[in-house]
């Protein structure tokens, strides 16, 4: 899955972790909508290499979506006709970014 609006980049550019969470979720919804997908799960966010949004740290965002396989669900029944598809992206927090 190609993320046209990177949730990790959106989080890394936020002023606070709470704002970053909201921005990452909005970017994930946009990325899913670009692929014609709706009602996706919230992304999983991990801060690597220090405190969230600390200069030079990294933010890793992972999104997993269950995709329904045509015809397989009707043959197997239930949720067995889906497969999980996931994507992740890691973004560096700018070392020189001024925070408000």
What does this structure look like?
- The protein has a domain of 56 residues.
- It is built from three helices and three strands.
- By secondary structure, the chain is of the alpha+beta class.
- The protein has a three-stranded antiparallel β-sheet with strand order 1-2-3.
Kindly summarize this structure in a few lines.
With 100 residues, this protein is an alpha+beta fold. The chain has a domain of 56 residues. Helices cover 29% and strands 27% of the residues.
Strand order within the widest beta sheet:
1-2-3
Instruction: Calculate the terminal CA-CA distance, rounded to whole Å.
Output: 33 Å
What best-fitting shape do the alpha-carbon axes yield?
A: elongated
Low-confidence stretches: none
Largest sheet: 3 strands, antiparallel
Structure class:
alpha+beta
Oligomeric assembly = single chain
Strand content: 25-35%
Key descriptive features of the protein:
100 residues, 3 strands, alpha+beta, three-stranded antiparallel sheet
List strands and helices in order, with pairings.
Layout: H1 7-12, H2 17-34, E1 44-48, E2 58-68, H3 72-76, E3 82-92
Antiparallel strand pairs: 1-2, 2-3
